[in-house]
Write a structure and sequence with these properties.
- The chain starts with a strand and ends in a 9-residue tail after the last helix.
- The chain folds into 2 domains: 2-59, no CATH class; 61-157, Zincin-like (2-Layer Sandwich).
- A hairpin with a 2-residue loop joins strand 2 and strand 3 (23-29).
- The protein has helices spanning 34-60, 63-75, 108-111, 115-127, 136-142, 148-157; strands spanning 2-8, 16-20, 23-29, 83-87, 95-98, 103-107.
- The chain has 166 residues and is α/β, with parallel strands linked by helices.
- It has a 3-stranded mixed beta sheet, covered by helices on one side.
- Bound molecules: zinc ion (ZN).
- The site of zinc ion has 5 residues, from loops.
């Protein structure tokens, strides 16, 4: 990402950042130290890159549509999913499900994995709407997806813990 920094002696404190086409335009006070500015620019770059990543994934995959199809195929259309979306936050490693609110979040990392792995993660999170814990009943539900074990192996190689728990 190209970065352009404009320092202004009229600015005292505030730093602003915005995207102009593909360039990140930063406006900063003239007296701000280079070290502090570098840190701030890195933060802005990360934030905008994540935003762009999320937009790219949202254009590529309609998660609600995919989840709807999986709901039909594996759950007899019985699940109530209130929202399902990609997130770029660190606290959701591969996928998260809030079974109380029916909200599912899928990590952006999954968006770049093979379709059968992504389907596994969706089915895994969707199954949590029925079984919140990783009980035997939960794994029984997941066994309906033939590629479950293979997908767990794939995710373990990508840094998932050894129980195949998401
Ligand atoms: Zn889980």
């Amino acid at each position: 990402m190209e970065v352009k920094i404009i320092r202004s002696s009229r600015r005292r404190r505030t730093i602003s950042a915005r995207l102009v086409k593909d360039m990140l335009l930063i406006q900063a006070p003239a007296l701000l130290s280079q070290e502090r500015l570098d840190k701030i620019v890195t933060g802005f770059k990360l934030k905008f890159e994540k935003k762009r990543l999320k937009e790219e994934l949202d254009r590529k995959d309609d998660l609600a549509d995919i989840a709807g199809r999986l709901n039909q195929k594996y759950f007899g259309n019985k699940l109530k999913i209130n929202s399902i979306k990609y997130v770029t936050t660190q606290n959701c490693k591969f996928g998260c499900c809030n079974y109380r609110t029916g909200e599912i979040r899928i990590s952006h990392k999954i968006g770049f994995m093979p379709t059968w792995v992504r389907e596994y993660v969706l089915i895994h999170e969707m199954a949590h709407l029925i079984e919140p814990n990783h009980s035997k009943a939960f794994w029984d539900i997941l066994s309906c997806y033939k590629l479950s074990e293979r997908a767990k192996g794939y995710l373990m190689a990508a840094g998932l813990n050894s129980e195949g728990v998401i």
